[in-house]
Each structure stands twice: as C-alpha cells, then as structure tokens.
Design brief:
Blueprint lengths: L2 H10 L5 E5 L3 E2 L39 H4 L2 H7 L4 E4 L6 E6 L2 H10 L4 E4 L4 E6 L5 E5 L2 E4 L5 E2 L9 E2 L2 H10 L22 H17 L4 H16 L7 H13 L4 H15 L2
Parallel strand pairs: 6-10
Antiparallel strand pairs: 1-2, 1-3, 3-9, 4-6, 4-8, 5-6, 7-8
Helix pairs in contact: 6-7, 6-8, 7-9
C-alpha cells in the first residue's frame, strides 16, 4: 500500500471523500463509456462517488469514502500512478478559499475572518466550515472550492476553523453566470397543446423546481433526472417556453450547477428521448 492510498483511507475513515490525482495534480480522465458525459453523470453533492462504471471517473465526483471502492482492483492500478490525494470539500461541508499568491493572502488577512490555514506551493488554503457553490477567479489569485470541486490534501493545517462568512459567499454571487437555456422545439403535429392548462403546467414546473431545491446529494444526477422527467411530460408537445426552462436552470444553478452542466444535462435528456 503506497503513501497516497494510506492517506486516502485515513481521510475516508473520517468521512472525507477522497480521490487520487495524477501528474500535474489533476484528476484521472473519464473512461471511454463516460467521456463527454455520455452516461449522464453521477456527481453527488454530499458524499460524491462515481457513476455505475467501476473506474475512477468524473473528476471530482470520483471522490468517495467507500473503503472497498478505494481498495478495489480498478482503483489499485490508479493509486500506483497517483501523485497526490485530493478531497471534495463540499461533501465534507467545507469551503476552501484558494489563495494563489502573496497579494491574495494579504487581501484575505485584511478582509476575511481568520480560520484554519494550510500552506500550498504558491500560497494558502483558508478552510471554512460550511459549503457553497464553487467558482474560479472570483478576484485576482482567489478561487473558491466547495461543491463540485476538489482540493489537494496538504495536511490538516493550523488554526481554528471558522464558519463560512458572507464575504466569501458574496464573491461567488458576483461571479454567477447568466442563464442560457436550450430552446425546446415546437410540437411536430401543431395544434393546441393539451398541457397548456395553467394549473397542470405550473404544478409540473413547480414540482420539478422543488425536487432540485430539496436535493441534498447526487445533485447532477438529480438535475438530469428532473430534466428528463419534465421533457418526458412536456418536451414533445412544445408547451415549454424559455421562461419555464430558465426556472429549472435557475433552480439547478442555485444548488451549485454551472450553466455548462445544466446545458449538458438538458441536451443529454433531449437525446435520451429522441427530441
């Protein structure tokens, strides 16, 4: 058993979801069956974990606390090549403020409450208790790593961990991307859509929004399945408008999904249904 695997198992035993990193400190690539998100993806916001394929797949979403998975033959070959261990901060209900240089560190010391600090090769990781949406380059030299992201494990750090401050959440709010929903084609047969009864359509969209909002795990998979359900009911008749789709995308983005993930999930659902 190499040092990386020993570290990973120790963290997993403390309920921290982990994954191996290859040279360059990046995750191992997807297997051929999952390339370009062809399998629909299975990231889990709470405990992470791969899709149904047995390999180390889906980047940050490969992170797991499952010891049999970490020590399986499929993963053993990867651990032999691993250069470092990473973890999923959001799954551990943590947020990492990644400070890439001295200027970013000086800004943090001036503007953010003190918390647990881990030295990195170029700067510092400031770790807060609480999870949120991740975002890169929220200001010069500063990335936010929590849900749907990974951080390299560099030791437990020093200092007392503080609660996630509003000042960090505000950085990502300013960075939020606009919603660009996919337009649903009109019904091939024409005529009035039977689903345009306001109560029926409104209830369906509201239920879909609530399903996404209430999800605490398997976020990307939940969004995909919800999009699939909505399109199964309303995708062929053309009753969905950009406003309806925008509401679904907004609900997903509020839970940490990016515009790209939303578009991927929507496109995969359309393809699955032959739309």
């Amino acid at each position: 058993m190499n040092a990386q695997l020993r570290t990973a198992l120790d963290l997993a035993n403390r309920s921290v979801a982990v994954l191996p990193l290859r040279a360059g400190k990046v995750p191992f690539g997807n297997c051929p069956a999952c390339r370009n998100n062809a399998c629909g993806g299975r990231p889990n916001m709470k405990t992470a974990g791969p899709c149904t394929c047995p390999g180390v797949c889906h980047g940050w979403a490969a992170a797991t606390t499952d010891t049999p998975t970490l020590t399986s033959p499929q993963w053993a070959r990867v651990w032999a090549q691993a250069q470092a261990v990473a973890y999923h901060p959001g799954g551990a209900r943590l947020t990492v403020v990644d400070l890439d240089n001295a200027e970013a560190g000086a800004w943090a010391r001036q503007c953010l409450p003190a918390t647990r600090t881990v030295l990195t090769t170029r700067g510092e990781h400031w770790i807060y208790r609480g999870a949120m949406q991740s975002a890169n380059a929220v200001r010069p030299g500063v990335d936010i790593k929590s849900f749907m992201a990974y951080a390299r494990w560099l030791g437990p750090g020093t200092g007392t961990m503080a609660n996630l401050p509003d000042a960090v959440r505000a950085l990502v709010a300013k960075k939020s991307l606009p919603i660009r929903p996919v337009t649903v084609p009109a019904p091939a047969g024409g005529g009035e859509c039977p689903h345009r009864r306001p109560a029926y359509l409104a209830r369906g969209i509201a239920m879909a929004e609530q399903r996404i909002t209430d999800a605490t795990s398997a976020m990307h998979a939940t969004v995909y399945r919800t999009f699939l359900a909505v399109l199964s009911a309303h995708g062929r008749c053309g009753c969905l408008t950009d406003a309806h789709v925008g509401r679904l995308f907004a609900a997903a983005q509020a839970k940490g999904e990016t515009v790209r993930h939303c578009n991927d999930a929507w496109t995969n659902a359309l393809t699955r249904l032959g739309l």
